[in-house]
Amino acid sequence: MLKVDDIRVSYGHIEVLKGISFTVEMGEIVALIGGNGAGKTTTLSTISGLLRPTSGKLSWKGEEIQNTTVEAIVASGISHCPEGRRIFPGLSVRENLITGTAARANNKQEIEEDLTLVFELFPRLKERIKQRGWSLSGGEQQMLAIGRALMSRPSLLMLDEPSLGLAPIIIEQVFERIVELNKRTGLAVLLVEQNSAMALEVASRAFVLETGTITLSGIASVLAGDPRIQEAYLGG
Amino acid sequence: MKISPFLLLCAAATLAIPVFTHDGYVIQLLNIAILNAIVVLGLNYATGWTGQINFAQAAFYGLGAYTTAIATKAGIPWIAAPFLSVLIVVIASLILALPTLRLRTHYLAMTTIGFGEIVRLIIVHWEPVTGGTSGLRAIPGISFFGFGPQGQIQHYYLLLAALAVAVIVAVRIRHSTLGRAMIATKDSEIGAEQSGVDIVRIKLFAFMIGAVYAGLAGCLYASSIRFVSPDSFSGTQAILLMMMLIVGGMGSIPGCIVGAVALTLLPEILRFLGQWYLVLYGLGVICIIVLAPGGLASAASVARVRWVGQR
Lengths: 236, 311
What we know:
The complex is a heterodimer of chains A (236) and B (311). Chain A is α/β, with parallel strands linked by helices and 236 residues long. Chain A has helices at 40-47, 70-75, 93-99, 108-121, 123-127, 138-150, 168-185, 196-202, 220-225, 227-233, and strands spanning 2-11, 14-24, 29-33, 55-60, 63-64, 78-81, 156-160, 188-193, 205-210, 213-219.
């Protein structure tokens, strides 16, 4: 469904992605793991159109998207839940969520349906529906960011470090929801995580990114047992 | 939106003012305050909600005023003047916004200051048309096919009606997709883009609707004050408009009105201080900014929470 083909991305003259290729198929959860500065966030930002690759191709549902605008990519069904959440502190929870529908035609009934879905997934958000974004806790903000990303009715959800700065119990909850959503709706997920153990547990396949190249790839459960991974990412 | 009894009381008091004073000077001052409130409400779209600094608002105000002044003095029926003023400011805002909206913060601020200065220089130097520094006098009054307000009190009610329309439009936009997209753009441009908001289009819209407010207020200014001069639309005025927005409370509709009215009336109230008035005026503005960083509107909501308790 999503095909990343030999993508190179540079910041100025520093090449951050040195030709990476991978695919995400319909309905699967794929994890992208790796240390700081490996290029994980850059990969997601390139797919969502915030960055332009210097060479290589991105294809989504058979169409090339490396020169498409961010809004058009969202409208085509790829939703990016960014690192650090980037929710809108000045808008209420409800307004934050509705803003996530900006890329599609505005149909009130559809929006209400989607809100119901997000509130089923994260009942906490419903309790906070009228509160402004800034007044939420870190975990609630993460739920809001994921909820907002779901409002565009994506077929691929890209999550960047959803566990960042959250208490272990909240991380558990957030991941449970993501898996639930994937099982129920067939939503494909591309997950970027530093919390590799958690990522490998929920994903079906995984890639290891090291300084701009993919060094390992395979079935997530197999990778989790790989001694190289255990040593480098799972703490021995 | 629920209409609170407090709001009704304010509206009633505003409507009753001419019953208590027939002083032309006071009413005239209030008329200018109302016009400023409309312009500041316009500024709030780009600056208060979308987070784009705009020092060109006074220039749009001036363009609207001069367009109406020149057109009606040339004999064009008044009813066409608002449309002409809007047309001119929309064109001007496109000329300013299209090349500059990708700029941010102080770069955008400098560009808008430059634009304001260009407009002022054109007004000052294009003497045969604009009257230069001495301005244009004896501008025909407001007239809807021969019917028009007579005297300042009738103008007062007409301008209040215009302000009411400006507020209603602003409230409607705030609670629409456009309004949410504006605030999303201010809060996080990347977050907004990733939610599918076309942020360049939103910024352009915020600038343009703000310019339209200024253009219409300018039109009403020219034909109710009946005199325009470049001083009323200078860089100082642009800074004053920004101050009204900050003092009132960025992003708050009541804040825009309170800020505009307060900063229009304050210099007159302090006039008895002679040349010292500027010192007190400056101190007052600094106090508000330091003590209530969110402006008078946020101070009011904090006070309400304290007295009435959280809603």
